Amino acid sequence: MSTRIKLTLSYDGTDFCGWQKQKTGVSVQGLIEDAVFSITGERVSVIGSGRTDAGVHAKGQVAHFDTNSAVPPEKFYKALNTVLPSGVKALKSEKVSDKFNANRTAKRKTYEYSLYSSDTEQPLKERYAARVYGVIDIEKMRSAAKILVGEHDFKAFSATGSSVKTTVRTVYGVSVEKSGEDIKIKVCGNGFLYNMVRIIAGALLKAGKGELSESEIVKALETGDRTLLAETLPAKGLCLLKVEYE
Amino acid sequence: MSTRIKLTLSYDGTDFCGWQKQKTGVSVQGLIEDAVFSITGERVSVIGSGRTDAGVHAKGQVAHFDTNSAVPPEKFYKALNTVLPSGVKALKSEKVSDKFNANRTAKRKTYEYSLYSSDTEQPLKERYAARVYGVIDIEKMRSAAKILVGEHDFKAFSATGSSVKTTVRTVYGVSVEKSGEDIKIKVCGNGFLYNMVRIIAGALLKAGKGELSESEIVKALETGDRTLLAETLPAKGLCLLKVEYE
């Protein structure tokens, strides 16, 4: 009888091709699977709460796998960290029911998009935030953010070419916080479409610059027209903060 | 008649051999001198407020150089940034009097040492902070910090082997701030000995853990005995925040 382990993970996405295993490039999923093999000798599938793209960071990604190993579940993360590279580490491990599925039973996800406002690149901010310039009205960003809260068809807020059953998602909340030259956009929802948070962040930024009106955002939600919105902001500013389960 | 330019610089020290030019390795000073050459065709000496070691970061290092170029002083930083690599950027440039010397006329420097308390490595914190574990009493750290304020012989707080005329320095203030699992130690003084801030941070940490008493710190100041204190903390947690002039 195998044991299902829930892992909480953090990674610096800079050097990875994203969560999912690819033909080329180093993936987070592949590194975790290799680490489990190193520790247990078992070749397992590690299922994440969802994919994160190349360059996207995580403070609290969640994944699960099944093992027959004798490693105590609550100590598994420390064993894995002895073999994981410095860019990916497990923060916690615990035994969960076989009904737990990191992907299918996830109820809420929270992402954060980080921006900084500066007329020149700042080396100590560049790794985890996108630089913006010009006058940005935070109240306009907050006002635009309110439009997105609730159940909507977010088709206009997803990268073209992605195939999903439905583009309807529920956004529970969007906050915009400013501290000095740093701006953080936090988005919590029941699930996200491909590039959705990066497109939301881009639209809110454009709203804050006075280049995108609230009626245009409403129209984008109504029509699903991606071209009404802004460009997708870069991956490096995005971080998966947490994934919640019932 | 040449013009003296004061530069304010920020860098991520991770990939550099430090401020100063070395026989091997990429130095910040060397990169700035090469950038000035690219822009002006002049081979100048760029003088920094002081050396920062390999791996140490800076938000506000200050340097100066003399130029005969026609580039407007206040726009020099943007010109340099077009040729500087992403790890080093100039934040500001201005014309100063020939009496200004980034090194000799510096009056106050402020450094910050960043720690985070966690039982496991966190990839998103590792680049700019040192990890610590165990119970840390912030009030004990603050109390120990007060002992260091004032004019003292900081011989015990400098790496052995450094040759300076005097090991007497004035520390204007030391603050210890905690936010969640993050601890930041800020030290402001008229100048610092080799490794001084990293040794101060190590001593305060040890005091916070209850492993170094206040009387031992007093004794270290009185005797100059380096062995009474703690280990030097790693370079990556250290950042030169600002350098002030009259």
Beta-strand percentage of chain A? 25-35%
Distance between termini of chain A? 24 Å
List the domain count of chain A as a whole number.
2
Radius of gyration of chain A: 19 Å
Which CATH class of the largest domain in chain A applies here? Alpha Beta
* Secondary structure tally, helices of chain A: 5
- Average the pLDDT over all residues of chain A and give the rounded result: 96
Biggest sheet of chain A: strands, sense, closure? 10 strands, mixed
- Largest interface: which pair? A-B, 23 and 23 residues
Strand tally of chain A: 10
Oligomer: homodimer
CATH fold group of the largest domain in chain A: Alpha-Beta Plaits
CATH architecture of the largest domain in chain A: 2-Layer Sandwich
Structural class of chain A: alpha+beta
> Runs of chain A with pLDDT <50, length 5+?
none
**Shape, principal axes of CA atoms of chain A:** globular
Residue share in helix of chain A = 10-25%
Order of helices and strands of chain A: EHEEHEEEHEEEHHE
Provide key terms for this protein.
alpha+beta, Alpha-Beta Plaits, 2 domains, 10-stranded mixed sheet, homodimer, 5 helices, 246 residues
Notes on the structure:
The structure is a homodimer of 246-residue chains. Chain A is of the alpha+beta class and 246 residues long. The first copy, chain A, has helices at residues 28-40, 76-81, 138-148, 196-208, 214-223; strands at residues 3-11, 47-48, 57-67, 88-96, 106-117, 130-132, 150-153, 168-179, 182-189, 238-245. Chain A folds into two domains: 3-96, Alpha-Beta Plaits, CATH 3.30.70.580; 108-244, Pseudouridine synthase I, catalytic domain, C-terminal subdomain (Alpha-Beta Plaits, 2-Layer Sandwich), CATH 3.30.70.660. In chain A, strands 1, 2, 3, 4, 5, 6, 7, 8, 9 and 10 form a ten-stranded mixed beta sheet that branches. The mean pLDDT of chain A is 96. The A-B interface holds A 10-12, 57, 59, 77-78, 81, 86-91, 120-124, 126-128, 239 and B 10-12, 57, 59, 77-78, 81, 86-91, 120-124, 126-128, 239.
